[in-house]
Structures are given as structure tokens and as C-alpha cells.
Amino acid sequence: MNSVSFPQNLLTPIKNFFHLEEKKLTQRKRELEEQDPFNDTKRVADNASIDTDAAEQFGHATVEGLKKELDRKPIQIRKALTMIRIGKYGTCEKCGKMIDTDRLMIFPEATVCVECEKKKERK
Ligand SMILES: [Zn+2]
Fold first, then answer.
1. How far is the CA of 86 from the centre of ligand 1 (A)?
2. Which helix (H) or strand (E) holds 112?
């Protein structure tokens, strides 16, 4: 038996949580795309005042940031689901060490440990 494997009885609730999250993220993304002022077909560029333009730029930037997050997270979730499937959930994909359970409580989709995450951020 591998001593670093994640408790099996916890995997099912985690899996269910991920599937729910995926659904929510897809829904949220669709909502955001509808909110993006740049997607507004009624918008007439030439008539827009500077103020409106700035507000739209800001709105667009916010939406873009959120969209990036909404693009990244499902990938992360799918990765974590793969880790569950291959029985590696809870271990760091970089160094193979057990990921801190406190970290997994906050970021259940984490596939790297704190140390490797820090190394990644320093890049
Ligand atoms: Zn690691």
C-alpha cells in the first residue's frame, strides 16, 4: 500500500464538488460573456463619449480578468479530477510529496504543494 495516497472515502465528495464547480463555472462564464460591453451589438463606437469609453474599457478589463480566471479554473479542476482517477490526488505533481491537507481544504483543485507553487510564482 502506498502511504501517501489520499483517503478514498474523501474522494467521492471531492469529485462531486468538482463536478458542481465545473457546472457553476460554465454558467458564470456564459453570464460574463453576455455582460461584456464589447459584446454589446447595440454599441455605436463613434457616438460614445470619452467617459462611456473609459467605463466600457474598465468593464471589459474586469470581465477579461474574470474570464481568464474562469478559463484557468476548469482546467485546474479537470487536472485534479485526473489526479483522482489515477489515484494521485493529494500528491504534488511536481515533487510527488503529499500536499498539505489545509491547502487542499482551501484549494481542493491544487495539484502542486505550497513549496512548488512558490517556486512557480518566483519565475
Ligand atoms: Zn511539490
1. 18
2. none
- pLDDT score of 46: 55
Q: Residue 24 is inside which H or E element, if any? A: helix 8-35
Residues at Cβ < 5 Å from ligand 1 ion: 92, 94-95, 113, 116
Query: Which amino acid does the sequence have at 52?
Result: T
The Å distance, Cα 68 to ligand 1 centre, comes to: 24
The cell for 117 is: 507553487
- What residue has cell string 489526479? 83
Q: Regarding predicted confidence, which is higher, 121 or 91?
A: 91
Distance from residue 97's CA to the centre of ligand 1 (Å): 6
Ligand 1 centroid to residue 42 C-alpha, Å: 49
87: left (phi over 0), alpha (psi -120 to 50) or beta: left
Encode 47-60: b = buried (16+ Cβ within 10 Å), e = exposed: eeeeeeeeebeeee
Query: Structure pTM?
Result: 0.73
Residue 44: pLDDT over 90:
no
